[in-house]
Design goal:
This protein has 1 helix and 4 strands. The protein has 110 residues and is of the alpha+beta class.
Length: 110
């Protein structure tokens, strides 16, 4: 009987440790995904946000004049390293649209 109670305690402790490990790892993934999101600018002025050929990465964040069209969107590139300035979004096939659009006309270089 004493051996059975000892085994139950070991199993309960093991389940607790596994539960805590899974719980804390869930928070690490959320933190990582925030650093893979980068803002790309709509160089074409087109209002079609899903066309990756229209977007370019720029390090400068003041590139939108007032206008109702989409000037920039945030995309998840899957990489914590920012793209190179001037890099076309179409060169990152795995990028997915996150949103967080800024309206305006793109004033940077193509």
């Amino acid at each position: 009987m004493n051996k059975l109670s000892s085994n139950i305690k070991k199993i309960a402790l093991s389940l607790l440790v596994v539960g805590l490990a899974i719980g804390f790892s869930a928070f690490n993934d959320a933190k990582k995904s925030e650093t893979t999101i980068h803002r790309f600018y709509n160089k074409s002025g087109s209002s079609t946000p899903m066309n990756k050929a229209n977007y370019v990465y720029q390090t400068n964040s003041e590139l939108c004049d007032e206008s109702p069209v989409i000037c920039s969107e945030e995309w998840d590139t899957g990489s914590t390293t920012p793209p190179a300035s001037g890099q076309q979004l179409s060169t990152i096939p795995a990028a997915t649209l996150v949103g967080n659009a800024l309206s305006g006309d793109y004033t940077g270089s193509n």
